[in-house]
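Lecture 7, part B: from sequences to assemblies.

Below are the input chains for today's worked example.
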Amino acid sequence: MIQAIMTALITAAVIALLLAISLAFASKRFVSKEDPKVDSVFEVLPQSNCGACGFPSCSEFAKALVHDPKAANHCRLGGKKVLEDIETVLGVKVQQEAQMFARVLCKSGSKEKFDYHGIRTCKAASLLSNGPKSCAFSCIGFGDCLKVCQFGAISMKDSLPVIDDKKCTGCDLCVAACPKSVLMLSKATDTVFVACHNQKKEFIKSCSNGCIACGLCVKACKSKAISIDSSCAKIDPAKCNKCLDCVKVCPRKVIQSQLA
Amino acid sequence: MENLFVIIIGAIFVNNFVLSKFLGICPFLGVSRRWKPALGMGLAVTGVMGISSTVVWVIEKLVLIPLNIGYLDILVFILVIASLVQILELVIKQYSPSLYNALGIYLPLITTNCAVLGVAFLNIQKNYSLVGSIVNAIGGGLGFLLALLLMSAVRERLDLGDVPKNFQGIPIAFITAALMSMAFLAFSGMIQ
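Predicted structure of the full complex, as structure tokens:
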């Protein structure tokens, strides 16, 4: 009997030992070489994996930063604090990028051109003859932008997204999620903008509160910051001095200012 | 000598490890949300099943049976599978960090995946030869891969669709899996 127990014990022990040796060998052979600096940079990042920096995850960003510290100002979510932390860890000085917010370039004044009963996402609806709204550039209102925002900065009011500037980090995810390019990132200092991005004259008559390209804002602007084509006005933020004359003069109240 | 064709058709379709035997459900439901990690997981499980079945068969036939300690098979099988999965984890971490991150916790969970242990025991039970065991194991892995890919395709569409709020996520996945199992019953009776 004792011999049976010994056989079992020794065999099990030998097999376990052989496996342990092969594991130890494998752990030496398949070492993923990681620079310890990558870990220390990774720790100061916000861990949100939002993609604002242009990399798919914070760990990828950390790896890239060790190679090229100048990209440190890409983390818009972290802002100044994370930038300073990265500068301390890597021992470099980088210039901070301007803070960006998302803006909604639509006031959703067009009616529905058909009854839509498909999948309730903006992306799916936009695939059916340019979407259920009569203006092809209108916001569809199913909230793809809201679903993708990780910071709760978007809420839907009357089928239009409303951006909370206090929570918006400028990460760019909602801009990419919108199939109609209604959302656009602009600098926090560019406060005056036209809430319409119509590109075809024929849609002017289908919208009750969009830009009608009347040109009154162009005449009112003393710094020649507004340009107009046949379909919509556009403001050049570099020339705008925020006098707000265009806001007062717009008959449809399409030009808006987002003063902090 | 068993018929290899019968074994492989049996392992992939008739006795599909996930849909007929209900083994390995944890990674089946955990990794099947998108098809890319599902593909990676299926291939990893196929690899582990194939290699572990070979090693386990050799140990069973050349060490355990001759020494009359066949009762140690559960212990030894788990040791072998656990070590293999650890080695596989190291290899995947080095050669494909994105797959490693996508699989996450489910990669080490292959160790406790009853499908891997199940195929090892099934080979012993049915007294297959070495070649038969390898074919059975790889077939089982391919069946697991097939079930995972089908499930991920269905779940990607379900995510877009209009599922009632309380059914979203795992509940509707279970119902889908049940319907798929019933569909796979169509293969029963194809082989002995």
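Note for the exam: The mean pLDDT of chain B is 89. Keep this in mind when comparing with the next example.
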